[in-house]
Amino acid sequence: MHSLDLIAGWPVDNASAAVVSTEGVSEQYGDIDRVYELASVTKLLVAYAALVAIEEEAIDLDQQAGPEGSTVRHLLAHSSGLAFGENKVQAAPGTKRIYSSAGFELLAALIESESGIAFRDYLAEAVFAPLGMTASTLHGPAGHGARSTVRDLSAFASELLSPTLLSESTLAAAVSVQFEGLNGILPGYGSQRPNDWGLGFEVRDGKEPHWTGQRNSTRTFGHFGQSGTFLWADPDVGLATVVLTDLAFGEWAKPLWTELSDEVLVNNPR
User: Fold this and answer.
1) Is the pLDDT of residue 168 over 80?
2) Is pTM beyond 0.85 here?
3) 10 Å Cβ neighbour count for 16?
């Protein structure tokens, strides 16, 4: 039995998934070419485009962006003080981890302004095209408006395990904690002290409860989406898992996602 076979018992109409290692895809489930709404998994793709923009010097990590005193780094790390869904300041930059989709929309607007390229085109040219992600699109807001497939996100997961579009040092910084010690709420899982985040990537660290597995290392990074999607990469074991479903995230997902992730780690020892 493959670890992804557990998905057959989930209360979803459609689901697709893959386990990816540094050698390639090791497991698949469902129709890997089916297009799903990613919801906030979109942020991983947008963050990656922003990191490319930083390496191309279109923008700078520490340039002003967002509220007064906030930078690109703050926006990526959900520490600008912006509210979740609107351009409203709720805290001073760098004082609290407030998860903000609005911050990612400001980030996309900045990249568009500084590069002279519409952001959805920048994302396509910087990330989708070079990775062969032909089915992926940004059709809505930069915080939650992308669609993709497991085939495409498997290519992206491979990139996260062994970067080709970014330097290793840039990716290492992106998946390391930014503004250490900030507390905040992890959507769906409540208050986390601290609520660690990198540059667009949530960092697991010691968070409990959490949407990844009990066996995932503290260095695991990724994101989940309210549309019933997740992607994590665990650098300690060189594995990543992509799961896309058509059932909105809810209490159903919490035990099942953790069980699946643990099963993946048991069945794919490194």
Assistant:
1) yes
2) yes
3) 25
- Structural domains of the chain sorted by starting position, each given as residue range(s) with its CATH number in brackets: 3-267 (3.40.710.10)
Q: Which residues are CB-contacts of 68 (< 8 A; sequence separation ≥ 6)? A: none
SS3 call for 129 = helix
Closest CA to 82 of 100, 108, 105: 100
Q: Return the pLDDT at 269.
A: 80
SS3 content of the chain, % helix, strand, coil (to 5): 35, 20, 45
Distance CA 181, CA 245 (A): 33
Residue 239, SS3 per DSSP:
strand
Model confidence band, residue 261 (pLDDT cutoffs 50, 70, 90): very high
- Nearest-angstrom CA–CA distance, 13 and 252: 14
- In the chain, what's the furthest Cα-to-Cα distance? 54
Six token digits for residue 129:
């095209």
C-alpha dist (Å) from residue 129 to 9, 135, 263: 35, 10, 32
Q: How confident is the model at residue 253 (pLDDT cuts 50, 70, 90)?
A: very high
Pairwise CA distance, residues 264 & 16, whole Å:
15
